[in-house]
Each structure stands twice: as C-alpha cells, then as structure tokens.
Amino acid sequence: MPLLALGINHKTAPVEVREQLAFAPEQLPEALRELQSCTGIREAVILSTCNRTELYCSLESVDSRPVLAWLERYHVLQLQDLQPCLYHHFDQPAVRHVLRVAAGLDSMVLGEPQILGQVKAAYQLAIATGTVGTLLNRLFQHAFAVAKRIRTDTQIGVSPVSVAFAAVSLARQIFGDLAGHTALLIGAGETIDLVARHLRENGAGRMIVANRTLERAHELAAPFGGYAIGLEEIPLHLAEADIVIASTASPDFVLEQPQVKSSLKKRKHRPIFMVDIAVPRDIDPAVGELEDVYLYTVDDLQEIIQENLNSRAAAATQAEEIVDTQVAHFMAWLRIHDSAGSICALRHQAERLRDEVYENARRQLLSGREPLEVLRYLANTLTNKLLHAPSVALREASAQERDDLVDAIKLLYKLEDN
Q: Catalytic: 344?
C-alpha cells in the first residue's frame, strides 16, 4: 500500500502561491472526507499551516494523479501552473519527510516546536473524521515518538527561535526599546500567544488582542495585562498601535489599505510596524505601499531567523541521523505489514486445498476403502497439490534464467543445492 506526501512549503513557493492551496480549519473535515472518497485513496491527513500545505495519503497504487486532481477541483485551480512548486514523495522518502516535518527539521525555523503540535492536531482531526487507518496511524505515532526523542536527545530546541520570536526581534530592531509602545495582536492562536510572551519578555508596553471570538481574546490577553477586542473594533484602536502582528485563519483580509490610511492620519503619520504571519494573508499587501508603514510577511522573517540558527547546526546533524535510523525501522515494519496479506492468501489457499483433499478422503473412508490406502491417498494428493504451483514457478524461473526467483524459492523452502 504506497504512501504519499504531496505538498507545497516555504522553500518551494512564496506566500502568494501558498495561500492559494491553504485550507481554513472549518474546511478540513469535509475536505478530508472528499479526499478519502476519491478512487485510489485509502487514508488521508491534511496539514495546513502558514508555511506549508501537505496531503499525506495511503494509496492503492504509486500514482499521485487522484490526489492532484482532487486538489485542483477543491481549490478551483490549474495545478499545471503550480507544478514547479509541488513535491511528491512516495514510500521511504514520504516517511522521511513526515518524520522531518514533525521534528521541525523541514521548518523555516529549524527545530521549532510549534509544528509538532500542528501535525498532531492534523492527525487527531483526521482520526475524528475517520480518514486514518492502520498505515497512517502507525506512521504518525512513529513520527511523534521520533520528534520527542530528537528534542530529548539533541540540543535542537535550545535557542529561542521561532516565527514569533523573529517578528518580535524585528520590532526590537526597528524601535529599539519596546517599552512605551503599544502592540495590536490580531488572532488568538498559538503563534499570537508566543508573540505576546516574547513582547512581554522584551518589555513591550500595552497590548491589545483582537479576535473573532472575544472570549478567546480575553483568555489570551489576561495573563499579559492586555485589552481584548473583537475584529470589528480594530478600526477604533488601530491608531493606538505602534506594532501590529496578525495571524488568523481568515480567508479574507482583516486589515485593508483605507483602514490603515485613516489610522495614520490620526497618528499624525507616526510609523507603524506590521508583520503578517498568516497564510492566507491577513493584511492587504497594498498597505505596504503607504508611507510610514513597514509591512513584513512571514517570508521576510527568513533572514532574521537564519541569524539564530547557527547554534542548531550540530544538533540538526544528530537529529538527521536519528531520522535515518527511524525511517529504516518504519520501512521494516511496512514490509512486514505488506507481507501480511500475502501470508494470509497463502494460508487460505493451503487450507482450501487441505479441505478438498480431506473431504475426498472422508468420502473414501465412508465408502469402506481401507484406512491405510486412504491415508496414503491423502498424504500424496495433499503433497502434490501444495507443491504444484511452486514447482511450476521454479521450472519457469529456471527456463527464464531468473536466478533471483530460484534463490527466493530456495530461501522460502529452506532448500539445499544437493
């Protein structure tokens, strides 16, 4: 049963391309069911973050076309235009990719821990939706164990490096001391929570948290002494913000140019620093054309992040070695799993032949035939039936000079050359 990891990420495509393939959280259950229902697809997990959209599937054959066709239909896209950005990994490379993603080795921020939580959430949602079977269940459980071991046995996560950390570092570079500056955080997910923590650690002044659900905004803002508002209240408070960092799951822009332009007039054109971490983007790119606005996307953080990665290089090498070993372990399990069907079929065939010969022997006994003769008949007939197919295969393999098959039969039946 082939495994496929198909997707797009920050290494293969810019944010304006990635957002075309992103899935909103509320879309995922139905998307998973649709994907699994396609001919040729047995199991499915979808991972959609600001840096990647990936589909993990177990298939009936080594053919990614059903997955590509579904992705094209779902997003109403011509994927031929995006083909250079897409990657397809089958079987062992797919296993390696999943393990590296879960461990943070394929992240924009090497070794960042948030991706493991995102992978777990994607897996748990697929479990709840009913699109995970034996193969993907085993793969993801293995990936989680490997990621945990890497974080335990290496120094991959020692340095505080993340997209949230990079965003706050950039704000510190622009403003110097963050004390006295007001930050508007749009969204209330894990990334914004990390941003709030880093802002507090760097002495930022007032914090405003805006979210679609006001209750969730209160939950995030309270530990930091922040003020919670709904998304619809942003225009009323935008002029107060020196720093704006956005990360929501909204399919549409949360901030548009007219809103920001109006706020700049109220601020008397004091500059605003903005970071849009979301995919799809929360802030209209046209906002960046305004004077006194410094707008950055998640891709712009790469240079800052890179400066903080040197300390993780040796740990990453050690982590890759662990991945290599664990890929081999999973592939060994997969080979055993794949052979189980063949073993069952072989046993079923042998039992069917046994039952046929037994029934013939039973009828002979009932008809009064000598028991020893019936036993001889049963032994000879059963032996001939069981050995007929491998004997024919062995002769054909020898005639075709298929030494590999001849050697396989010798190994399976423990035969000696003499």
A: no
